[in-house]
Design brief:
Number of helices: 9
Helix content: 55-70%
Radius of gyration: 40 Å
Order of helices and strands: HHHHHHEHEEHEEHEE
Shape: rod-shaped
Distance between the termini: 53 Å
CATH superfamily of the largest domain: Histidine kinase-like ATPase, C-terminal domain
Number of domains: 3
Number of strands: 7
CATH class of the largest domain: Alpha Beta
Amino acid sequence: MTSQRWLHPAPTTQWGVIVTLLVIITYLHNNLHMGMEHNLSMILVQKLYFVPVILAGFWSGLTGGLVVAAMAAFLYPHHGHMMLAPDAQDLFLSAQAADMTLLLMVGGIVGFLRDRLQKELEERRATADARDRALKELQSSFEQLTRADRLSSLGQLSAGIAHEIRNPLTAMQGAVDILREPLAGHEEARFLERMGSDIARLERLTGAILDYARPPEPDIHLFQPLPLIEEVARIAQLGEPRIDFSIGGEAPAVLADPGQIEQILLNLILNAAQAMEGCGEVRLTLSEEGGRVVIAVADQGGGIDPDILPKLFQPFATGRAEGTGLGLATSSRLAATNGGKLALLASTPSGTTFQLTLPASEHPHG
């Protein structure tokens, strides 16, 4: 780093050094008297003009090199040449003119080479950056493929287990229903209620696993998104009566599976209700961006745990003890299956906004 600072100081320092050298060299140059005893000193001092010219070309490129070379060439002639004999004057002036021309050439060549080298360095740096980005993207893609393969295997295994569990759960629920009436009013009935709620929770979990592992093929067709959103809000309010819904905006027809889109929106609204602890406002907004239909779902909850954000749409990522961590993962997969995308738009202490993007009728899926 120290050598870099010496080779490439700040621009103000660069020009300070160059101007200082020009002033010192010009002062020494003009205070030498013409004569045999001073010829060597004068020639050496004059040649020092090449130092600031070379520095300007090295630091500032072609423009800086030529500007300083022109300044040095203007200051280069010695004011005492009129004291020489006529023949000596001609020879002296010719030598001065040659040196002035050489100053311009040196400034231009050094500046040109510096600019060319700088351009090559920038191109190589850009190439290296592009290569690094490509390597990172390749590594990320490989990790995603590896994770997807593992998740696929895990999903198939989980689906098999969930399917096998559902049959005994159905039998257990049937037994609970049979025993509920004879035990009505008995103290033991509370154990049946606890068992029934646990069975219901297990059924929801196995259902969520099956939905994620084996999503049905979408039945894609045109539909208007606004009536669907209004119906979803109506259904959600039946289960969450203290939640207010605000619906706005407009958009063209959507080309997707309305049943799966309804499932996505219900999952998002359920998450919003849980984040607001069952009380607050959920805003559902329709818009069109770049030929795509955008549905935004915003709540007034406390935001998402920052530790969850990097794996928000991965299976089993949840910040709630009672959560399965499959709602957003399933919703994201369903959105992709319908040619769309589910993304987190904002997460702050004052609320969270998800954005569901879907293909419009003018931009068919696939």
